[in-house]
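In the current project phase, we have settled on a layout for protein records. One protein thus recorded is set out beneath this paragraph:
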Amino acid sequence: MSRRSERTGKLIQREISTLLEREVNDPRLSKLVSVTEVALSPDFMHAKVYVSTLGSEVNKEDLLAGFNKASGFLRKELAAHLRLRQMPELSFHYDDSIERGAKLLKLMSELSTQKNEKTGSGNRLRTDKGGKDGTNKRSHNRGR
């Protein structure tokens, strides 16, 4: 992806987020919805908009249907706010990376608590004072 494509994608992402927050009245899109990424085609004619939501109560198909219904409005508003030669066609895709990350963090915390339960308080670490001079080297004088 070129630098111009990345910058334009970030700009479109920011504008769509602002429009979702302030302008869109669709109840399917009023939940905690975030635009995670915008990927533009090399000719800037098509944009894949990846969206995600927090909470499992939202149906993904309803969310994407709401975005597809609002795509004309979003495209018109983007054209009014952004100075691009041609506004790309928007296609919306669900991004489940936030959910996968949350599941991974939950599994890691469960493993951590299981490990702490197994080690328990009976197995405390011993601290070694080391040799006479305060270093960690022990002298092994075996009758020499």
